[in-house]
Write a sequence for this structure.
């Protein structure tokens, strides 16, 4: 009988910068480090039964797990780096949120205590695919397969401000600039007019100094953000995992994902587009990713899309971003399936409170104002935190069903 492989998950958001730099000892900026620390236990909720989550052993983590209702216990369990040696001897695989030289180096260092720990390979192909240029290349192929789709201007990758001005001359504002290697919602800058102001020019200069290029694209009249989530086996097989509908904050970072039955999520989009449009986009994206990624990339990935308004009608942009990693959309899919009552709809929210103690105060307020209600071992209403919240917490991930 085949023994299933168990994973050791590791939450490392913002790994794209480590990919760009190629550094095994990369240290993220302070806000990202804080997010990694505060949300280290998030993989408890998207891991499979018997998986592990790499996290420092703390009193808060133990207290958090013991406080959870029995029927809402996570399928995975935390393990500290010091306890890796005590995991079962076989079929243990490293599963970082995003594969990078830093995460590979971390898990390779843990192999001294657990020689059977399998670490995914990382190479230049993975580095190239992680950059935003891959999404632009995929977009061109997808458009070829969808000839009836309204034309979209492919993002242009520029190495100097003259090239940016040339793009601006070809289409009306506003414009969105992106660093080639940055995580979803980060490394972005808006230009609202046809002439970049001093602030924009400073951002462009700094971004080009860091990464050599920036991409520029015409911003669209967005109506809905959504994504299609996939898993690739690295041998040419791509599996569709589901749809996620999400909300971004004004400057671009992730804010929340809808939680609920897949039919409820799709209904959010069908008020603007037809089932056939969604079906055609999914087929085209699957075909292109199967050809371009599935033979060489193993792991989860999410394709950010949007519904936008043009000339009084709605259309789909099928490839805003390509995220070669676990995504909040995948987390939302797992949370919806495992924790949410099928008759209700809620949100998975990621929030940040920089003031000392503000996160804990709001956590306690939400617990009191929206008491948790569990029906048939599923959350039917209320507030539920997915990670511990203490006086030191700034970043939170939680469920809210009103």
């Amino acid at each position: 009988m085949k023994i299933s492989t168990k994973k050791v998950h590791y939450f490392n958001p913002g790994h794209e910068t480590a990919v760009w730099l190629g550094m095994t000892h990369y240290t993220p900026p302070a806000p990202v480090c804080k997010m990694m620390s505060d949300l280290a236990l998030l993989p408890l909720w998207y891991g499979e039964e018997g998986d592990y989550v790499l996290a420092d052993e703390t009193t808060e983590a133990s207290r958090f797990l013991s406080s959870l209702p029995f029927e809402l216990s996570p399928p995975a369990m935390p393990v500290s780096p010091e306890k890796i040696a005590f995991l079962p001897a076989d079929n243990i695989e490293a599963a970082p949120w995003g594969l990078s030289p830093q995460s590979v180096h971390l898990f390779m260092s843990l192999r001294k205590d657990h020689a059977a720990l399998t670490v995914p390979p990382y190479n230049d192909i993975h580095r190239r695919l992680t950059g935003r240029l891959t999404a632009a290349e995929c977009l061109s192929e997808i458009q070829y397969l969808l000839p009836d789709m309204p034309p979209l201007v492919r993002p242009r990758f520029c190495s100097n401000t003259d090239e940016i001005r040339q793009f601006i001359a070809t289409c009306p504002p506003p414009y969105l600039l992106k660093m080639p290697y940055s995580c979803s919602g980060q490394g972005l800058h808006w230009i609202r007019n046809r002439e970049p102001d001093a602030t924009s020019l400073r951002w462009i200069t700094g971004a080009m100094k860091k990464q050599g290029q920036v991409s520029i694209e015409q911003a669209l009249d967005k109506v809905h953000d959504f994504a299609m989530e996939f898993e690739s086996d690295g041998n040419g097989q791509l599996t569709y995992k589901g749809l996620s509908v999400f909300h971004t904050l004004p400057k671009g970072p992730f804010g929340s994902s809808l939680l609920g039955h897949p039919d409820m999520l799709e209904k959010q989009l069908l008020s603007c587009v037809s089932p056939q449009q969604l079906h055609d986009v999914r087929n085209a994206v699957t075909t292109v990713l199967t050809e371009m990624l599935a033979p060489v990339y193993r792991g989860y990935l999410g394709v950010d899309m949007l519904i936008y308004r043009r000339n009084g009608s709605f259309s789909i942009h099928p490839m805003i971003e390509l995220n070669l990693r676990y995504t909040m959309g995948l987390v939302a899919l797992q949370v919806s399936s495992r924790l949410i009552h099928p008759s209700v709809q809620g949100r998975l929210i990621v929030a940040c409170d920089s003031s000392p103690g503000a996160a804990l105060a709001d956590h306690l307020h939400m617990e009191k104002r929206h008491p948790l209600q569990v029906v048939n071992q599923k959350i039917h209403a209320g507030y539920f935190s997915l990670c511990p919240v203490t006086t030191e917490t700034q970043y939170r991930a939680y469920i809210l069903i009103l």
About this structure: The longest strand covers residues 221-233. The mean pLDDT is 94. The chain has twelve helices and 18 strands. Residues 276 and 373 are 37 Å apart (CA to CA).
